[in-house]
Here is the input.
Amino acid sequence: MPSGYKRSVGLWLMVCGVGVIRPIGQISQIGRIRATDPQTFNKDTLPVALAGGVRLCRFTVMKRNLVILGSTGSIGRNAVWVARNLGQELHVAGIAAQRSLKLLAEQAAELRCEWAGAADAEGARELRAILPSGCRAVAGEAGLIEMVTAPSVDIVLCAIVGTAGLKPVLAAIRAGKTIALASKEILVMAGELVMAEARKNNVRILPVDSEHSAVFQCLEGQRPESLRRIILTASGGPFRTRPAGSLAGITAAEALAHPTWNMGRKVTIDSATLMNKGLEMIEARWLFDVPQERIDVVIHPQSIVHSLVEFADGSVLAQMGRPDMRLPIQYALTWPHRRPLPLEPLDLVKAGHLDFEAPDPRRFPALTLARRALDAGGTMPAVYNAANEAAVARFLTGTLSFPGIWETVAAVMDRHTPVAYAGLPQILKADAWARAAVAG
Ligand SMILES: NC(=O)c1ccc[n+]([C@@H]2O[C@H](COP(=O)([O-])OP(=O)(O)OC[C@H]3O[C@@H](n4cnc5c(N)ncnc54)[C@H](OP(=O)(O)O)[C@@H]3O)[C@@H](O)[C@H]2O)c1
Here is the structure.
């Protein structure tokens, strides 16, 4: 390549880097870049600027390769819809599921994927028989890791329910992939570790959860030091107005009928107990690097205001939209751009009124338990999360009552002595211990 041409390409990349470094730097608590002022270029900030330029270049002129972990679930199917909507700029290179192998094979054929991952070797064998040619079946955690770390992959959307996505997400971060994170359990279990790895590897974690996407959007262009308080909204679930005395009789079918959101089974139960909001408080603590005292929750039954941020001057910004996960999913996949989304627009006149009320900790102690887990720190949030996941599974099979979910989580937390500054082995040990404790 002639040296003059090389110089102009280098200069152009640098200009792109300068263009993206300022907005990125202003929300540095979300991501990886600490430099905020293009005038402070030095040996540390220049490579970041160049990387920004390269990414911007890839974003604007090339299709980006996406892997969707959990593509057959509620978030996963919405993500596939979004990928269709973004056809020209996104290629779904890999997908993974646990049991829905027929749907997985159909998705692989439609999206022309290179990989499809099953949860184990038997699933991968089954998949091989039904996958289109050109799509390779991979198995288990190792298969997911192989897929998400492949050099051609740019972005990984983790939408596996529970904690099975933790190691693949860590591997993707270490391989420098952008992460769109729906699986809140990952940051609850190992938020400190995951965010430290993201910073170390200059990797951005983009929130998919609607509340965190709302906070992320409200923080864009703002200086981190001006943030006073995060206010997460909660629908309150189907039992918001139920008297305490009648909670013990709630069945799984009743708890699975969410008033505003259409979601997977576990997250629907978590919404009904408010455990979901507890998990989201912990997720927000790590994602935005804000202590729990500055994270509040307000019940908002219409699920139109997805969350709010209060700033130092008392100004409050909110992000609104219809309760539809395709919006935050698409924003995570196109950030920092907004692309058209052919959905029914929000009609505030039709909505009529927006209501807000305080959560009732006496009837729904999940938020208090989440604050306790954050206060205790170390492995306690992992125990909160794992005990809840196991208790929800028992509730769904009819061996635990509805209030039994939070009573069990509280009892298991009482028995746990948290390990501070925990690494992955201690976190996984605490997770396994809590699950065994719930099984009894
Ligand atoms: N749904 C929502 O609106 C929503 C909103 C915000 C955040 N989230 C979070 O997003 C995550 C997913 O929620 P969801 O509602 O989409 O759950 P879901 O409908 O139950 O889907 C879970 C997905 O994970 C797959 N899966 C489970 N274990 C796996 C394994 N070991 N290996 C590979 N794939 C595996 C499932 O495959 P099979 O279909 O084969 O079982 C399915 O594709 C959860 O962490 C939830 O808290 C969800």
